[in-house]
Amino acid sequence: EGQYKTGAPLYSEEEIKKWEQIALEKRPDIKKMALATKSSEEYLKRKKAEYLPVVTASASYEKISPASLSASRYYDNWHFGVQLSWDLFDGLGRERRISEAKSLKMSSNFELVNAIEEAKAEVRDSIYEIEEALLSYYAANESVLLADEAIKQARARRDLGVITPLEYRDVVASRTRAKQSFIRASYRLLTSYYTLRNVTGIDLLDV
Q: CA 127 to CA 184: how far, in whole Å?
């Protein structure tokens, strides 16, 4: 509790980047977009391959008997062939399909980059929220300690007749409000930490 220096960053830049990397590796939305980007790249490759010729090879074998050639012995006869086919023009169909594939790839890349930047921003926002919540927590805790001390002093002054019971009750009420603020600050700190875990997907099981 006393190790945190007020006003100092709770997370170093290196630690923030580690949380960002966790988000990039664990978040389902980024995983899904990464797969979509990879698929669009493969699709573009297939469409570009339509520009290449199609090569087919064939082979056949037959055994020639002496009776068929009036020869004195059998011999083997092999046939090999290679066929090259290439559609040089199909009404700009290939160009259109490649253009569509490129657009799909660019769109997938854009969505992936955008998702990555949004994930990083959410991680940093969550970390900043934790730091602010921690400052509120320490301030609220300090208020409770001061209120406790005020009650001790007020009790002694009441017993001496310096203040009235009503004035003492006001001091007790102030301590109650300080305690309530501390509880709210504690809850905010706890929820901000679990918000960070949620936006990174760190608790999700790998599938």
A: 18
